[in-house]
Amino acid sequence: MDWLGAISLIIGIMLIILGIGMTFSIDAITIIIEKFMGLLAILFGILLAAGGYMLVREQ
């Protein structure tokens, strides 16, 4: 399995859990998943910024 498939699988599972938490008004699940997704977004942003910097630096 490639990285893109693994990442999309993890994000899909998190979105399903978040949807269940929002549908049935389970606040604890919603808060935990939102915080985890925020941390994941920060990590992806750092990885993309580092990758973009390496591409710009090469040219």
Low-confidence stretches: none
Roughly how much helix do the residues carry, as a percent range?
over 70%
Cα radius of gyration in angstroms: 15 Å
Which structural category do the helix and sheet elements fall into? mainly alpha
Alpha-carbon distance between the two ends = 31 Å
What fraction of residues sit in β-strands? under 5%
Mean pLDDT: 83
How many separate helices? Answer: 2
Order of helices and strands: HH
Biggest pleated-sheet summary: none
Number of strands: 0
The shape, in one word, is: elongated
Topology:
Blueprint (H helix, E strand, L loop, with lengths): L2 H21 L3 H32 L1
Helix pairs in contact: 1-2
Q: What does this molecule look like?
A:
By secondary structure, the chain is mostly helical. It is built from 2 helices and no strands. The longest helix has 32 residues, at 27-58.
Write a short abstract of this structure.
The chain is mostly helical. The protein has helices at about 5-25, 25-59. The chain contains two helices and no strands.
List keywords for this structure.
59 residues, mainly alpha, 2 helices, elongated
